[in-house]
Amino acid sequence: MKKIILAFAILAFVSCKKEEKVTIDNSGMPSEESATLTAKTPEELGKAIFEGQGNCFACHQVDQKVIGPSIKEIAKIYKEKNGDMVTFLKGKADPIVDPSQFDVMKTNFPVTQAMSDEELKALETYFYSFLK
Fold first, then answer.
1. CA–CA separation, 119 and 132 (whole Å)
2. pTM of the model
3. Which residues are in the Cytochrome c domain (predicted)?
């Protein structure tokens, strides 16, 4: 059964990826990446990562469980337990939201481990924005 769930999660992860080319006028900026990072608030950057390169929306929705827990549930539990979401996304902390889904989530660690601390912190900020 776990293999079926894992296969479904991988299929959903791969098939739902939406690529969209965005052109940024970065005249005077040192690089396109820095233009993207400086042009957004941490919350906006987190949303862009969540919906784009992170492809997190394939498994997580704002207020309903799909494959993984909802964004609101994740933020609520991490806040209540004073958890460190960034450390978890780096693969250096145990799951605290839904440990039974850890095998599915850990397949995404290569994506999150390649992200900078700033990007991971922006994802965390985006998640916590739903607690307002």
1. 21
2. 0.68
3. 41-131
- Confirm whether 88 is domain-assigned: yes
pLDDT mean for each 10 residues of the chain (132 residues)? 57 49 38 48 94 89 92 96 95 93 88 95 96 87
Domain assignment of residue 123, given as a range:
41-129
pLDDT value at residue 105: 87
Domain of residue 84, CATH code? 1.10.760.10
Question: Based on the structure, what is the number of domains in the chain?
Answer: 1
The verdict on residue 109 lying in a domain is yes
Q: Say if 48 falls within a structural domain.
A: yes
For residues 126 and 132, give the distance between their C-alpha atoms in angstroms, rounded to a whole number. 11
Q: Measuring CA to CA, which residue among 106, 104, 68 is closest to residue 89?
A: 106
pLDDT at 132: 81
C-alpha 115/C-alpha 65 separation (Å) is: 24
Q: Are 115 and 50 in contact (CB under 8 A)?
A: no
